[in-house]
Amino acid sequence: MSSKDMQNIRFESSPPNSPEEILMSFKHNRGTFARIFEIMCRYVRNSITHSGFSYSGIHCITVSGYAKGVDYLPGDRFSGLPPNHSWNVVHIRGSWQLIDVHWAARYLSSGRNAPENVVYEYDDFYFMMEPQQAVYSHFPEDPCWQLLPVPLTLSQFENLPLTKSQFFKCAIDFLEQHHGVVFTRDGLLRMVLGFWRPGGFTYKLQYLTNSSGHPHPEELSTNPSELSDSIPSLDVDLKNFVLQETTKDRLNFYFRLPASGVYYLTIYAQELSNLTVDRESTFRAACEYKIICDRPAVDSHPYPTCHDANWGPAWPHVYYYALEPSHTDGVISVTAKEEWNRGASGSRTPPPVSVDIRFGKQRPEVNLLAKLHRNGVPDEFLDQYQRVTETMLETTFHVTLPEPGEYGLEIYANEPAEGDTYTHMCQYLVHYEAPPGWNPTPRLTASGADAGPSPEAIKARGLSEATGDRVFGRLAAASKWPVDLSSPLREMYDYEMHAPSMGVLPRPYAESQYTEPAKYRSSRHFSPARNVPSNEGNPRLAYTSPASGPTSRHVPSVQREEAADLSRSVATIHL
């Protein structure tokens, strides 16, 4: 059933009471996936024999309830509504197993629920689902069919984030309690997820266009046609107001949003095998959140524009080129350690600061190069602020930051077999923290009065004033974004650390696969890790005859995956 297009299935003949007739009933809208699967299980139980031995068959029940399917958005409520989905519970070798034949059969390749977007592809995640994972998307009317020792309430289910099979396939995990609807403080927000299997990640941020200035944006209903990748008053993609940092086992998001209202975040993930990257990588939706922004962030300027959406080492590339980076996080913060310089006019300016980023090389033939970026500043000018030193076993990039602000540093790698093609394999946000009391000048963000590098920066790079002024004179107009005055990103507001407790929630995985920092081991966030319970000693999980189970009355929904529009190529440059 899960490998066929049930709407267009055909047979040469369909005798009465045959499996073919049962399957054809779906085509003629006389049944649902779950109900037909239950009937077929009964048919197998009553009919199949082999070598004179009669099989005991499969005891199957159709369960109805609520599912977070194609039309669901984080924050939507089910209370007071009729069930919208049905799935099955089967009894195999002494225990109950959860099966959703419909969701195992197909998904949508884009967000719009239309026949042309339906992709028929088998997804084995929905065959014998782990109960502690299924409960993030399936809520049965009878709580005993959650198969959990402590069933969730409907309110808890509604408050959980929207997760999809890709979330669990890529071994993404919640390190703290996670609400599906989160709130910013002064337009700032930090979110943290964990993962313990090699994977690639990216995201999409959309804005509800009619939510700007609304006194209670969390109460607005959402029409997908009203979601936009940008804000009408800005000409910058919303993705530039989010920084995604990937470490070896953490996925960090830092938001500084430019407008109040409602945002929707979709996190996409890609499974990687043997730490390799497909040149034409496809990402699938893993989870979704609704973000309520109270007000625009004071420093709501875009992060430096670089090629990739992810910050930090791209570990598959790092391993492929056999590199050992000195910095494994995507964000590097530096501060001035010297006294401020005093200019001729008596103004005080922070001195330039330097940071070294090293890559150990197990393969001496690998070549590396770096590109430095900053919004509003030509890349060719910033080339003079970074240099490289090479040995057989190490490449070191020496980066000088002429004044406080945010800079993007991209690292590209090449091996002789690739000719003159360099592959993007790492990028860092280098943040020169603004000292207290510093009033930024337009020196690096605008042309006009006082444009050009400071005398201190010229001295630090060994330049002449004339050379520096000529480069800055090429800036056509002032940047609309101010010089960065943001506080360190690690100190951003984390809603989950202040949100009301959601009570005892099941861990998505039976056992933790990594060591959690102490701050995530709060008992109010999670119950201790536990294995899926057996039926023994638990009457709620005891076998019930198929005749006593509820029947399906509602057409099941389809899960939204949104995969096709995120195919992309690995970044390369040619020298």
TrEMBL record:
Region described as Disordered: spans on this chain: 515-575
Pfam family, any one: Ig-like_KY
UniProt domain KY-like immunoglobulin-like: residue ranges: 154-304, 359-435
Protein's name according to its UniProt entry: Kyphoscoliosis peptidase
